[in-house]
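Morning - adenosine-5'-diphosphate inputs below, output right after.
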Amino acid sequence: MSHRHMTEEEDVLPDYDTDIDEVHPNQESADIRALKIPSTSIATVHESGFGEFLLKAELQRAISDCGFEHPSTVQHECIPAAILGRDLLCQAKSGMGKTAVFVLSTLNLMEKEEGKHITALVLTHTRELAYQILEEFNRFTKYLTHIKAKVVYGGVPVTHDKKELAEPPQVLIGTPGRVLHLVNEGIVNFKFVKHFILDECDQMLEQLDMRNDVQKIFKNTPHNKQVMMFSATLSDDVRGVCKRFMHNPQEVYINDQAKLTLDGLQQYYVNLAESQKNRKLVNLLDSLEFNQVVIFVSTVDRAKALNSLLESEKFPSICTYGRMDQDQRIEKYKTFKKFGSRIMVATNLFGRGVDFERVNVVFN
Ligand code: ADP
C-alpha cells in the first residue's frame, strides 16, 4: 500500500501541450496491398501459466474459461507487483493485455468481508472504454458473485446513476467528469477506496479539464491506497505527472519508443482528391478481404453521409459519433463488438483503447 503526500505546491500541476501523437503513414507507395495482421494481438506470451501468480481459485477458473493460457509480457511484468498492492505505472502498446493486470490484481486483493463499499475506482477517458473495462470485470467475477462492478459516464441522467448506486458496487468505473459530479452530489463515497486506477492515463492527464477532475476525485479518496496507471503512450512530462500521484511505483515500460503502432500493423495511404474518396473506399471495401472494418471520419455529418452511402451500396454498415444519444452509442458499440455489423463509421471518439478483436482493416 502506498501513501500519497500531496503538498500545496504539487496541487498545481504544470501545463502541457495537448497535442496527441499522430500516426503517420509509413509507406511511400500509393498502392494498396493486402493487409497482413496476425490473428493474435497478444504479441509475446510467457511459457509459464497464470498459476505462477497464485491468484484465487475463482479467478483461475474464470481465466481459463476466458481461454487465457499464458500471461502476456505486460501481465508477466506487472501482476506480481500489482497483487502485492504496490503502485504501478505501466506503458505498453494497445492490445497487450493491460486491462487484465488491474482487473485481476484488484479482484485478487478484494476481501469478501469488505461489503458494499466502493473499494476500486477506475477512471478512463471515454464511455466506450469504461464499458469495455466493465465487461472485463464481469468476465473475471464469474465465480466471485459477491463482487459487483458498475459503470458511470456523462450523457445519462444523474438520477439513473443515483438509483444504480443506491447499493454501491465494490468496483466503480467511470469517466472523470461524471465521477466528480457524483462525488460532489454526495451520491458516491470514496472513503473505502483501496485501488485508484487510471486507464489510458495520458489521455486524461494531458487534457486540462480532465486532469483537474482526476485530481479532485483523487483528493476524495483515502491517502492509503494503491495507485495504478496504464497507457499506450507516455511522454516524459506526463510520466512525471503520473508519479506525483504515486509512492515508489513499479515502473514498467514495454517497447518504450513505440507510438500507437501494433505489431504486424501495416499502414498505407493513397493520395486522392476529396471527390475521389468515396469511390476509392467502396472499391477497397469490395476488393479487400476483411473481417470487420472501422472507418474514422472527422465530422458527424461526414459519418452520417458516408454511412448512408455505404448502406445504399449494400454494405453492412453502422455509424457512431460523439453527439449521438448515449444509449444508442453503447448499443452500436455492442452490436459491432458482437459482429452484428461488418463496418463501423465513427468519429474519433474511441481512437484509443477500445478493442474490437475482429477488426483487421481501419481507414482514416
Ligand atoms: P490493452 O489494455 O493493453 O489495450 P486489453 O487488455 O484490451 O489490452 O487486451 C486485448 C485483448 O487481449 C482482449 O480481448 C483481452 O481479453 C485479450 N487478452 C488479454 N490478456 C490475454 C492473455 N493472457 N491471453 C489471451 N488473451 C488475452
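Note: Residues 41-42, 68, 71-72, 75, 92, 94-100, 353, 355, 357 surround adenosine-5'-diphosphate (CB under 6 Å).

O.
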